[in-house]
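Hi support team,

I'm opening this ticket because the web form for multi-chain structure prediction keeps timing out on my end. I have pasted the exact lines I submitted so you can reproduce it. The total is 582 residues across two entries, so I didn't expect it to be a heavy job. Is there a limit I'm missing, or should I split the entries? Thanks in advance, R.K.
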Amino acid sequence: MGMTLTEKILAKKAGKEDVQPGEIVTVEPTWVMSHDNSAAILLKFKKTGVKNVWNPNKIVIILDHTVPAPTAEYANNHKSIRNFVKEQGIENFWDINTGICHQVMAEKGYDLPSSVIVGADSHTTTPGAFGAFAAGIGRSEVAAIWATGKIWLRVPQSYEIVVNGKMPKGVFAKDLALQIIGDMTASGAVYKAVEFKGETIKNMSIASRMVLTNMSAEMGAKNGIIEADEKTVSYLKNRARGAYEIMHPDKDAEYEKRTEYDVSDLVPKIAFPHTVDNVYDIDKAEGIEINQVFLGTCTNGRVEDLEIAARILKGERVNPNVRMLVFPASWDVWREADEKRILHTLAEAGAVIMNPGCGPCLGAHEGVLADGDKCLSTANRNFKGRMGNPNAEIYLGSPATAAVTALKGYISDPREVL
Amino acid sequence: MGRVWKYRDDVNTDVIFPGKYTYKIMSDEEMASHALEDLDENFAKNVKNGDVIVAGKNWGYGSSREQAVKCLKAAGIKAIIAESFARIYYRNCINLGLPAITLKHKDIEKFDAGDEVDLDIENGVIENKTKDFKIHFPPFEGYVMDIIRAGGIIEYIREQVQGK
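Hello R.K., no limit was hit. The queue was backed up. Here is the completed structure from your submission:
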């Protein structure tokens, strides 16, 4: 019997001819990633009694969640991480001047096709955009890998989502992701591997593919994955940290479920508070007044996202009732957006340009919402209290929807201005 | 012996343990004081050692934050019984030594908030004393049972290191 892409990668990594869904394999991950939570992880690691990490070259630590530190407590956490990486000889350490972990993993060439990546962050599904097997795990588990170099993984059943058709004007990968999650529900793919394929995916930029694998976590998936192709190879040129192999699913691979989409009629989508699967066409949301627009995150903080927003806001002013916050996903994104005058355009329009990082996404830092505030966010989550205040509401949409909403002061359809 | 705290489907990690506290390093007691803060304000005040949570589908979806398990364990919760778990949450339960038990919908329905229950993790038995019935579930095996017995994966590795 043939294998799906996820099964092939796990079989190879486990040194087996083939694997079956449900089987448990023990593997040494290609990379184990963590971020600011490394401060808590290193305390757990020390509790194991193991002195040295199994392999300092396989550990990647990226500070992004609360950068720069907002309080002495966070500053001390960052300091303990800096000391730890020195002690242990961990060279793959990226300090507060780099960006959001999932973006940095791609930019700095860790996201390699057919690699196995685990990380202490639920959106570690993102590297799947490069044909990697990538999944989120908990902190204790990261500490255990630091100590032993091993993790047990249950081989997931695979779903295939086949997307064909040309994306209409004003409709983006984020709208497709919301459509799929709305259909699948937040628990629709629990523990499954979700393989995205089809002509629309082929034609998507790497940045847009990352939106889909990033948001796979929101339907409960273990991992989201897209076959690597010539775009992947070209992105990885001069970035890849090591050799990689490109794998393909077998023609007779068995998928537990197949869903097909034709995007030719897709419209902009909005996820209403307080769940990501509470998705409607934009017309149901139009006119809802918004107090804050948040453009950024590991989902939608890349150059193409800032660029479309700048196109909409060029020569215009953000509505005076709206605070628009822009967080480029990384400093590489920041620099490119600066060179292209995108940041200039957004600032001229009245947006606040912030430093790269997770920003207000999880309510731990910057841009917290007031009681009764409504926010239009390009992030991947809108849970109650997510942005630091349970008495606020978060609506999710694409960067284009965010920009036109900032302009009008209420949720608006980007197709009217593009 | 403990009491049942009953919750619905799709309870996410942000209401179990709010994100605004995620990157603060807290004592167990402090974590426990924020448990289920945005879901049930009575929980942290009234939970007792030995209580269990009984919930619907997809308990603990969302963030990978371990405090969403730790805060309940620190509050005295002895097991979480649900129709299904989000996958990272499930792994976190095992790795922190908090039994996560999956039951069928019809069995979950039999429990009400406040029921008195007795748990036998080693043999896979839940006894509802209030309603006088027993439910059997497959006990944990091998490596996973070893981790649960040790009280978590960190403790398990430490035992192994010390045993060498």
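A quick check on our side: Residues 271 and 279 of chain A are 4 Å apart (CA to CA). Let us know if the file doesn't open in your viewer.
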